[in-house]
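S.,

Sequence below, as promised.
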Amino acid sequence: MAILQIGAGSVGWVIAHKAAQNNDVLGDITIASRTVRKCEAIISSIKGRNNMKDPNFKLEALEVNADDIEALVALIHGVQPDLVLNAGPPWISEAIMEACYQTKVSYLDTSVAVDLCSEHQQVPEAYDSQWIFRSKFEEVGITGILSSGFDPGVVSVFAAYAVKHLFDEIDTIDVMDVNAGNHGKMFATNFDPETNLLEIQGDSFYWEGEQWKQVACHTRMMEFDFPEVGIHKVYSMAHDEVRSMKEFIPAKRIEFWMGFDDCYLNHFNFMKDIGLLSQKPITLQDGTVVKPLKVLKALLPEPTSLASCYTGKTCIGTWIQGIKEGKARSVFIYNISDHEVAYKDVEHQAVAYTAGIPAITSALLYFKGNWKAAGLFNMEQFDPDPFLELMPSIGLNWVVKELEPKTLLINILK
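The prediction came back faster than expected:
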């Protein structure tokens, strides 16, 4: 057996470590990226942590331009993997999916193939460009598993678990995400700055009353008391799983919320106001053409560099309210991850840790045959039970907490 991982950023780092820890099932591992030294750094870390479960399997690094479908096809033919794991940025997903279709090799990724900020790439259209591969994957008999991260990903599995076991009728689904850790920097992003800063500057879309509703970013806020990490302000944001759950989970309202402290938002708003978050090219006085967001990316700390000093915990979960046996019920299904524990295990921080482990959990279920079928699937379409049974052994526990049913106290900010 063999897997091909494309992408060597923060999430790719964790995926590769966890793949190596489970290579008795996954087999040979090839990591490919435009920058091969990043792949080599991951391999060095894996070997330094003694994370190869079976040292007899191959672990190698290769170079590839993931925007080039022909190059991807050649890479897949050369490696001959049973599964391609896309750990790269959103904009390479469609090229990799096409290469998988042409080579008849199954596919898995961790996020939607759009930036959720640009016109025609917002939440109401999210997944459209990938879902057109459904019939193509079914035609050639391969499996595609979309958005197998934590959010998106595990939070949708939590919702599917709630539908199957905890509720007769669901009123609301709120995905709640807070990083209560501290990396010691004035401002930094926990994964690729370009992807991260695009994600959080677009308008928020949420599903309510059988229609999409839209508000400007960081203008719809509430406070939530998270287990272990306490009360945090969370803001409504555009996010992948709101679209897919709207398709596959029956609920009256579905919304995504992320925690930001005032210091982070002050920096973010200042950079946005002066144009540093723009993707539009500008011409400098000497004639050099640059994109401000790419310049900012080059200035910000490399996310991998944050890991060694990170302290504190993350809390991510799905808050579901509805009816069970005629009575109102409210539950929060969540995970707590510790940055220092993540670093000890895979030499990275907990945000990447929570995004990478689900991909390997899904990959293992694919190899074991639990999540293997011809076609293209979001995670909430599969049986949640085998995933939630397996994930703790890979590194992420989960808890179901009963809450008092209540109406959200939402603040609308200008």
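The CA atoms of residues 24 and 287 lie 54 Å apart.

Coffee later?
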